[in-house]
Amino acid sequence: MPAGKKQLKPLTLPGLTKGVAMNKKELRKSIIRRRDQLSPEEIRAKSSSIAGKLYNLPAYREAGTVMFFITFGSEVNTRPMVEDTIKRGKVALAPKPVPKTREMIPSQIIDWDNDLVPGAYDIPEPKEEALRPFKPETIDLLIVPGVAFDLKGNRLGYGGGYYDRFFSLLGSHTPLVALVFDLQIVPAVPVDEWDRPVNVIITEKRVIENRQ
Ligand SMILES: Nc1ncnc2c1ncn2[C@@H]1O[C@H](COP(=O)(O)OP(=O)(O)OP(=O)(O)O)[C@@H](O)[C@H]1O
Ligand SMILES: [Mg+2]
């Protein structure tokens, strides 16, 4: 039995809403703690390997409009990917979170340094003057952040429900591609009824594709 599986077992019992919340919370804490131990050089090298795999993905090659997440803390560094995407003549979008409704407005990024400022939760986001909104249904490929994933594509986010809400606004065939470090892959992610799995997970070591 893979390590950690036993700890997640109470999730299969009905009616344990508190247990589910606790387990998501505990898993978040432990994976973020692990990820925070990566050195800047490790983050740089692993992110670069992840970028190479993304560029080879047909869903990326064929996409005209790609929405990225803007890196925060020890996450995979998306900046080089956003800049390469712009250089390739594609439209690169980034989310502007609306904390009141927990929605995200996709906004076009033209110049990383000029367009972004620290916003809600201190995560860089498009500033008011640089807001160039796009409709979610124009997105050909959504790059998804996350804390932990399992091999089925189940995803644990940061707990805001922002991405879970956003997924339902996309076209039904828009692929969801998660970019994470391999240490964020766990045996099983606790899921609730509103959680939607991703189609592809890219880590520095592998590309995990899920048929859905
Ligand atoms: N589609 C939805 N509509 C309304 N509320 C939702 C939806 N999806 C999730 N939520 C709410 O968001 C909260 C957080 O959900 P969850 O714990 O799955 O967050 P998460 O996936 O870690 O966060 P995120 O999506 O921001 O990465 C839940 O309490 C849930 O009620
Ligand atoms: Mg969720």
Molecular structure report:
The chain has 212 residues and is α/β, with parallel strands linked by helices. The chain has one domain: 3-Layer(aba) Sandwich (Rossmann fold), CATH 3.40.50.10420. 30% of the residues lie in helices and 19% in strands. The chain is built from seven helices and eleven strands. The two termini are 26 Å apart. The N terminus is likely disordered. The chain binds adenosine-5'-triphosphate (ATP) and magnesium ion. Adenosine-5'-triphosphate binds next to helix 7.
CATH topology: Rossmann fold
| CATH homologous superfamily assignment | NagB/RpiA/CoA transferase-like
Instruction: Return Rg in Å.
Output: 17 Å
What does the overall shape look like? globular
What is the number of independent domains?
1
Query: Major β-sheet, in short?
Result: 7 strands, mixed
Strand order of the largest sheet: 3-2-1-6-9-10-11
Summed up, the helix count is: 7
Distinct small molecules bound, one entry per kind: adenosine-5'-triphosphate, magnesium ion
Class derived from helix and strand content:
alpha/beta
* Helix content percent band: 25-40%
CATH class: Alpha Beta
Please give the alpha-carbon distance between the first and last residues: 26 Å
**Architecture (CATH level 2) name:** 3-Layer(aba) Sandwich
Mean pLDDT: 91
